[in-house]
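step: validate -> pass
step: tokenize input -> pass
step: predict -> running
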Amino acid sequence: MTEQVRDDITLMANDPDAEWKRMQEKTFTRWCNQHLMKRDMFITRMDTDFADGRHLVALIEMLADKSVGRYNKTPKVHQHKLENVAIALNFLSEKEGIKLVNIGNTDIVEGNMKLILGLIWTLILHYQVSLVGMGDGLSPKDALLQWLSKKLGKKINNFTKDWNDGTNIAHLVDAVGPGLFPDWADLHPDNSLDNAGMAMDLAEDWLGVPQVIQPSDMVNPRVDEKSMMTYLSYFPKAELQAGAPMGPKLGGGVRVYGPAVEGDVTANTPSAFTVDAADARVQGDLELGFSGPSRPDTEAHPRRGSPKVFDVDFQAMEPGDYFVDVSFGGKPIPQSPIPIHVKRPPPDASKVRVSGPGVQRAKLGEENAFKVDAKNAGGSGLLEIGVNGPNVPPTRVLVDHTGSFQFDVSYILAEGGQADIHVKWHGEHVPGSPFKVRAS
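step: predict -> pass
step: emit ->
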């Protein structure tokens, strides 16, 4: 465990507000870097990286689109750092008309995080959030809430719990870029992290809204209000970029194809199909469910190099109509369930099994029985039984299909001597047929 992690844990244990403070620090750092990167600059810690004034000057010049004037670009001593920070703060108050309260150059040089966060929030409000409601007389917070409410067509009351389940951010993405997230209304609130993650990825990729806050922070019940305001204030100026995937609803565009779903499948014979979500928008892991006469043997394999394409092995022991439910993250694709018809294999008399005393010996004038098991012999069930006595036909022959292509056969002979028992499956003798038995 690093010293920094230990410090964070200690801070959280001693300060119930530490979680949102850390969240705010991360968000504000990312926000600063969105501007500093245009100068090929970057900060990791605001309490130290602003101390010499160079990054602060660069940030302010990028925001104001003006020069702050001369400053020391290679500060080496404490006095140089104080002078640089003073130049930056004076520019804000004197040239930009920004009121700075209770913060001086010493606070920044010495790394007072609370006051530095306050300064960055002042910059965010002035240069970004307040632009949403210019001229309408509302506070920046109320103006942003009003804009969000109008955009979503419903009342948005806050920047915290209204956003915790990820559905409102998905709705906002689709409202700003119509068709970018058309299935937002189908999202389940219980999938909050997935909802927020997918929506924020779309916003970053196609609306140019940077993820200054993380999805895990947004769905946190203790999400920081200022961090959320910072993120959401990007949307009023966001524009849909060319080539955006204005596509089908969640799960739309998933293709399911292959021999198992395109034609008849033979029972007890391996088959397969493919679930191809490479060009679709899906959420969560692939889930397959099967129903039918028996439980099929199945296994899905992600295709190498194509993590959203799955090859699925399928083999059913029993013939009949099966259905496969295809879902991603618990949400069925539009064409689910998909039928799979499993037929019996072609007849093979060699796989019929005959057993029982009735094909070994017979008692005259009594019922003699045996069983025929054609479960694995294919075909449609055409069983032929012939019982030939020495001279006189049998008194009775009964065949009872007990299910699953299994049969009970019984017969009664009217005279003694040798009898032939013929068992044929689809016109072909089964192994051992004709069976020769002696009646006595």
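step: describe -> The two ends are 91 Å apart (CA to CA).
step: cleanup -> pass
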